Amino acid sequence: MSNNKKVALITGANRGIGYETAKQLGEKGVAVIVAARNIKSAEETAAKLAGQDIEAYGIQLDVTNADERKAAAAYIDQKFGKLDILVNNAGVGPKEDDLFVKKTVATTADEFEYIFNTNLFSVVYLTNDVLPLLKKSDAGRIVNLSSILGSLTLHADPESPIAPFKRLSYAASKTALNTFTVLLADELKGTNIKVNSAHPGWVQTELGSVEHAPMSVPDGAKTSVELALIGEDGPNGRFIHLGEELPW
C-alpha cells in the first residue's frame, strides 16, 4: 500500500451505516479497516468489500474491551504506521423497549451504564488509543456518530421534530458525545486533525427502525463519509447532517 493512501478505521462496520461508510470510503480509494466484535464477521465483511475492488482489512474490536482497543491501535501502527480517519460508528440503544419509548426518571442504572459505556466512554478511550497515529496523518479526521436526539436546543423546543422522542439514556449519551467533539476539537486546535459530530439521519437500520425510518442506509452514511474527507477549510468542532450544521 502506498503511504500516500488514506487509512480509515470504522467501528461497528460489519453492517448498517458502518458497513456502508466503509464501502463508500473504499470506493473513494481509502484503505478501510472494518472493525466488529466478532473476528469472523469482520473478516467476512472485509472479504465482501475486497470483492468490490476495495482495499479492506477485518479486525476484532469490541469497543468496550480495553485490551482489544489497544490491540487495534497496535495492529494499525504495525501495518500502516499511521491513521488518517477514525469513524466512531459503533453505538447501541436500549436493550429493553423501543428507542422511542419515553423514559426519564425510571431509567435504570444498568441501562445508563450499558449505553454510556459504548456510546461515550469507549469512544473517548479508543480515540485516545489511536490519537498518536492520527497525529502522524497529514489530515487526520475524527467523525463521531451522534444523533439529532442529542440536541438540547431541539429537545427544549416543543415544536421541534424530535419533541416526542424523550429517552434519557440514549439522548444524554449523544449529548455527552457532542461535548466530547467540541472539547477535543478545541484541544487539537493548531494540529492537522479535525473533529466533528455527524447526525446520519433517521435511517433504516435495526436501531433506527427498518419499517418507519425514511432514509436509506447509503444516504445515512453520506455525512460520515463527507466529514471523513473534508479539506483543510472544512468544519471543525461542529454538528453536521448532509452539509448542514445542527444546533447543539
UniProtKB/TrEMBL annotation:
GO molecular function annotation: oxidoreductase activity, acting on the CH-OH group of donors, NAD or NADP as acceptor
Name of this chain's protein: SDR family NAD(P)-dependent oxidoreductase
Iron keyword on record: no
Family: Belongs to the short-chain dehydrogenases/reductases (SDR) family.
UniProt organism field: Mucilaginibacter celer
Matches recorded under PANTHER family: (+)-NEOMENTHOL DEHYDROGENASE, SHORT-CHAIN DEHYDROGENASE_REDUCTASE
Keyword presence, Oxidoreductase: yes
InterPro entries: CBR1-like (IPR045313), NAD(P)-bd_dom_sf (IPR036291), Sc_DH/Rdtase_CS (IPR020904), SDR_fam (IPR002347)
